[in-house]
Design brief:
Rossmann fold; 12 helices; globular
């Protein structure tokens, strides 16, 4: 397993990840997935708790083209793509977090567009990261959108109390689903410039993108 500045990252493809998680869903053990990118790697350098959570995850997918610059064996696997691939499999799924209404909107979009059955009830979105509400629904898959670091710490702390099989932090994925224009065109993604597209739409992200500069400096200097 490759390590990027002390952070473990799995060398895995989308089909391999889906197959692995499918096998987990047949077991009793609870699991959690993390999605390291350059920004998360840099934040983990100063946050020992966060670093430990990343390294103890059952699966760490390389979400961020910058990681491939550090290790050419890695191929990007976006957390959003893994989430969508798993939802397509028809498992009972709960989307949690994001701003009020966003998780619900994302669930509605996925039910009608991705799943193709608007009346389907095994895909639900709620704004509150409320343990009691989550446990009432008992989802197989729990996707948490509280922002990186916060969502990973929340999952690590609460997973023992949650009635779920697999949990994963998904950052801004729900915003991208509820607001499709936030997702870069495929050609831009293929060029590894999705970060620039998002920056053009949301200039406030410049502070976050500075972490990428620091990451590259750390790798190459």
């Amino acid at each position: 397993m490759p390590k990027i500045l002390g952070i473990k990252v799995d060398q895995i493809t989308l089909p391999q990840a889906v197959s692995l998680i499918e096998s987990w869903l047949k077991q009793k053990k609870k699991r959690y997935i993390v999605t390291p990118n350059p920004e998360m790697v840099m934040l983990a350098q100063k946050d020992k708790q966060f670093k430990r959570i990343l390294n103890q995850a059952d699966l760490a997918i390389p979400d961020g083209v910058g990681l491939r610059l550090a290790d050419s064996r890695l191929r990007r696997l976006a957390g959003r793509d893994l989430m969508l691939a798993l939802i397509k499999r028809g498992h009972k799924t709960l989307l949690v977090g994001a701003k009020p209404g966003i998780a619900q909107k994302a669930a509605e979009t996925l039910r009608s567009v991705l799943v193709g059955k608007p009346t389907r009830t095994d895909l639900v979105g709620i704004s509150e990261s409320d343990i009691a509400a989550i446990n009432r629904l008992k989802p197989d898959l729990l996707f948490v959108a509280l922002g990186q670091v916060k969502q990973e710490k929340w999952i690590a702390k609460n997973l023992p109390k949650l009635k779920v099989k697999v949990a994963m932090g998904i950052g801004g994925a729900l915003d991208q689903i509820a607001k499709p224009w936030l997702r870069a065109p495929l050609r831009v993604q293929a060029l590894g410039l999705e970060w620039l597209y998002r920056l053009m739409l949301q200039p406030w992200r410049i502070k976050r993108q500075w972490q990428l500069v620091k990451f590259l400096a750390k790798i190459y200097l």
